[in-house]
Amino acid sequence: ETGVTQSPTHLIKTRGQQVTLRCSSQSGHNTVSWYQQALGQGPQFIFQYYREEENGRGNFPPRFSGLQFPNYSSELNVNALELDDSALYLCASSPGGTTGNEQFFGPGTRLTVL
Amino acid sequence: QKEVEQNSGPLSVPEGAIASLNCTYSDRGSQSFFWYRQYSGKSPELIMSIYSNGDKEDGRFTAQLNKASQYVSLLIRDSQPSDSATYLCAVNQAGTALIFGKGTTLSVSS
Q: Does residue A35 belong to the interface with chain B, where contact is any CB pair within 8 Å?
């Protein structure tokens, strides 16, 4: 069974640029959630995708957007990067369909905005 | 504002001791509760989930849930240096977002 994978591992961007992060869910999981983790903080929920539809969104501006594909992989896009967007971006997959499913995290993408 | 509170630590225990990690949450509608372990520079790893009041044991780990007091705890028996990490408490209300605390740093000395 393949776990959650994310790419790239690290990324350096300049303020104002755009970035796309990618995630492949664990085999058998149809739900993907994205989180942002700043240094010394717990992960903060960005949004969740279930069967290619957004299924909940946290307190993030519209410049954070996402997609889920028919194979349940997902992308997180961030436009007009700001310095405060520097963080570890985590993707988590879960079986979906019922409340309270366990979420399993990928290794994360470390984004640095200069 | 839904909140999850944890003491940031560090919590220091000697090898072989019991480590006790605590978490409180504000939303009474919360249904699912999780403990994640996060090593420095790595992503969170799920170690325990608990859904009903009482204790749940898995190896050296015991999760305890008291919904009336809005309190979740994690006990680690026979603590090992390899248990040194940040432990994140997470709460899920509606099957979507996990709300995380800031984490408690545990240090186990040999």
A: yes
